[in-house]
Design brief:
12 helices
């Protein structure tokens, strides 16, 4: 299988086969993907590693984090990284829908604590097993930027997805999730964080929130 290119289509096919074969058993899914990568070859393992990280980085949006907090009962920075890996593992359709509208996660079944930390490292571990080197040492900044640009064109972002919504605003932005899950214990942002303050100043809220009388 060394002649099979690990492109975006191959990546999603592998992700969705793992889900079909292993269901909600994330450990089994990780093992199955690693075995496929070891069989496919070093370049494919490296490309898989880069694709996981690029799809994960593309999903690094405060609106999605707001939804993940509700779905999972609150997430730290590291928890949100592992949630995004879990979201990727749900397959292309669910991933794309969540980036278009995080409220679509109300239709997604929760399991595995909504966390798939191992997916972040499978490509690297397979690559290291085949070459004795780390995939992180092969990082190509220009190529990664190009990959991010291609993914951005493939997976459009929904309106207002980069804004950090308050608990009160979440009810308007994520009505289905808030109707389904308890939001009282989800916490709020650290409003002293420069990143949060910058996002609140530069990013626009969803029109769902504005329609509730918000003047922004």
């Amino acid at each position: 299988m060394h002649d099979i290119e690990m492109n975006r289509e191959t990546f999603w096919n592998l992700i969705e086969q793992a889900k079909d074969k292993c269901g909600e058993d994330l450990a089994a899914s990780a093992q199955w993907i690693r075995e496929q990568l070891l069989f496919m070859g070093a370049q494919q393992a490296l490309d898989f590693h880069n694709l996981v990280h690029a799809y994960r980085d593309h999903a690094d949006r405060y609106g999605l984090w707001t939804a993940a907090n509700i779905l999972c009962g609150g997430l730290s920075d590291d928890g949100f990284i592992d949630f995004r890996a879990w979201l990727i593992a749900q397959g292309r359709e669910i991933y794309t829908a969540a980036l278009a509208d995080p409220d679509s996660l109300a239709s997604v079944e929760r399991y595995g604590n909504c966390s798939f930390e191992t997916l972040n490292y499978i490509g690297d571990r397979a690559y290291e097993g085949l070459t004795g080197r780390s995939a992180y040492d092969r990082f190509d900044k220009a190529a990664y930027r190009k990959l991010l640009s291609e993914i951005a064109a493939e997976v459009p972002l929904g309106e207002g997805i980069s804004y950090p919504y308050s608990r009160e605003e979440a009810a308007a932005y994520l009505p289905r999730l808030c109707a389904k899950y308890d939001v009282a214990g989800t916490g709020t942002w650290n409003y002293d964080s420069p990143d949060i303050r910058r996002a609140m100043k530069s990013e626009k809220k969803s029109s769902r929130v504005k329609s509730r009388g918000d003047a922004r």
